[in-house]
Amino acid sequence: MQVFWWVDRHERFEVIMNGIHNAPGASHSLYGRSDRWFLLTLVALNYFTIYLHRNLLNYVQIPLQEGLDLTETQIGWLRPAWLIPYCLAQLGVGYLSDRFRRRTVVLSSLLASSCCLAAMGLSRGFGDMVLGRVVLGLGQSCAVPAMASIIADCFTARNRSRAFGIYLFSYNCALVVAGKYGGRLADTAVWHVPVGRSVIDVDGWRMAHFVFGFAGLVVWLFLLFLLSEPDRTGHSAEAQAEPNAMGVWRSAICVLAVPSFRLFALTFALAGMVVSMIQFWLPRHFYRVFHTTYDWNLEDAGVFATFWIQSGTIIGLFVGGWLADWCSARTYRGRVFVQLVGWLVVTPAILVVGTSQTVFLLAGSMLAVGVGVGLYQSNTWTATFEVVDPATRATAVGFLNLGSGVLVHSWFDPVIGWINETVLVNRSSNSLGFLLTSMAVPAAIAAALLAWAMLVTLPRDFRDSNQPPVVE
Predict the structure, then answer these.
(1) At what angle do helices 36-68 and 72-88 cross, to 10 degrees?
(2) Domains, the chain, ranges and CATH?
(3) What's the mean pLDDT in 456-467?
(4) Residue 218 CA: distances (Å) to CA of 49, 56, 264, 423
(5) How many CB atoms lie within 10 A of CB 253?
(6) Lower CB density within 10 Å: C or N end of the chain?
(7) Is this structure's pTM higher than 0.90?
């Protein structure tokens, strides 16, 4: 609460800045606010930073494991240590963003994330790392629903998928930066840092936490002066004055009562399995496969595991955003159709990623996986916003994350680590490859669920949001 108070106290600095971020002064058109691209850039920068923080662990896990003497099962627990509190907090923080100023929520989350990540660099064992990841998850939990709500109010249904595609592009950049520079910092076993007349020895994985945490504080200062609070659109005059007077339980019931939303939530949970396997375990898989044959280090494995998939995802985000906006202008099934195509691309491509050890073939298949994931992700929120009440947008995003956490992330990574460490340890040297291949199953189920939603539930649940914004 003190962080929220401190940020709100500095609202007065906004009047010093030029009118570009003075929210009430922005005009509106059929495509949204006049300053929508500026605000989208700021929100994307914030998402880039918190995504950098949450995924740094993926690319420093081997030296971290050796430095803290952790087992693979313990390493597997570090991801759900972040995800479980992050997801369980979504109901409350989603309502928080529907009820209070989203600018304050976003800034407070980034400040907490930056300080927590830097503090994790001081961890002395498994317990410290788990505690740090829990606090990091709680600190970041309120950011995404708030940012989704801001973007939804800045753009209209005519261009909202493109906006979310550009926004999500920032997380692809974050993964590439974390893979390259996080891995590079961790590849140096010990950094010798001069402090006055003495020199302090800092482990490489600890230095990565310190550097990325400091970068987050720099971004926080930048956003403190430039990020504004946009008007809430699609609401009545009463809703503008009192952003969400439903109450938390009424908002939750309103969202969960929509059959299409429930199918979208299940699909999002299945997507979490595939993305988690790719982001957390793929760098480790490539390090094991190519460390001996090609003498790859952590930076090499991290870059290869991120560059092709994230490049493909960037393509998928931009193509998926444009294609979905074009399709949705012609049929209400347009956005869900683009998502379905994405999973039909991912399903066969992930089979190749898990079985091949040919660099060229792996690059092509990872590119295809990325394109499919991008087609899906660019429309996750926009498809959701077309079936829920506009007053519950942030709550709906919160429920997506909550469902993914409860159904998948509460158990997935520890189980993968345990299977890899025990059940498959004697099966082959490519046990992680076998587990990667198995991700074709949830990908195929996700495609089936979206097909059912498109053909059966969406005709009943669709809300016509292709209208100019209502701003009081």
Answers:
(1) 150
(2) 30-191+198-224+258-460 (1.20.1250.20)
(3) 78
(4) 10, 18, 36, 45
(5) 12
(6) N
(7) no
